[in-house]
């Protein structure tokens, strides 16, 4: 078990001395991390979470206890609007993409969007 200061949040990256296993510090944010990075992670999580929900994108978003960041919403709407093109791009580059169990569905649907589609 690793002991860290109370200000360290679950899931946050930390530096650990691999020789002793002790907490050292929190590393500085990487260039790709920050609010937009967090919004992208939240959008992916919501796409997977949507697998178990019923309804449309607005219904799922309305059912959240906390409204997502506007950039997160824009990402979700973009996946929903461009899902056919996203699938086309992925299928042209990914080996075996058409052999997956949900073949023919959009990238969003492969993550469970819209709900009930996977």
Structure description:
This protein is mainly α and 118 residues long. It folds into two domains: 1-30, no CATH class; 35-100, no CATH class. The protein contains five helices and two strands; from the N terminus they run ββααααα. The protein has helices spanning 35-49, 57-62, 70-81, 83-93, 107-110; strands at 15-17, 22-25. A two-stranded antiparallel ribbon has the order 1-2. The longest helix has 15 residues, at 35-49. The radius of gyration is 18 Å and the shape is extended. The termini are far apart.
Question: How is the topology of this model organized?
Answer:
Blueprint: E1 15-17, E2 22-25, H1 35-49, H2 57-62, H3 70-81, H4 83-93, H5 107-110
Antiparallel strand pairs: 1-2
Helix and strand element order: EEHHHHH
**SS field, number of helical segments:** 5
User: How are the strands of the biggest sheet laid out side by side?
Assistant: 1-2
Main sheet record:
2 strands, antiparallel
Structural class by helix and strand composition:
mainly alpha
Distance between the termini: 38 Å
The chain-level mean pLDDT equals 75
Spans where pLDDT lies below 50 across 5 or more residues: 104-110, 112-116
Strand fraction equals 5-15%
Strand elements, count: 2
Question: How many separate domains make up the residues?
Answer: 2
Helical content, roughly? 40-55%
Q: What's the overall geometry?
A: extended
Q: Measured on Cα atoms, how large is the radius of gyration?
A: 18 Å
